[in-house]
Amino acid sequence: MLESFDAAFEVIALWFSDSALWVLFISGFLSATLLPGGSEAGLIATLSLNQFTVSTIIAVATVGNTLGA
Length: 69
What we know:
By secondary structure, this protein is an all-alpha fold. The chain contains 4 helices and no strands.
């Protein structure tokens, strides 16, 4: 049972690491609209992956927040 949970968690983690910029963009877009939420958590999570440059992450977050406003 534990092995299947670990395997499922790894698949989810891989999917999110591959699409972290999309998740960050959508999070920023939705948090700038009437929907409650904060994009800061997504920003910190994306930065902690160390997969993209800081300037790319900031640009994606900024565009998402700006388009959602």
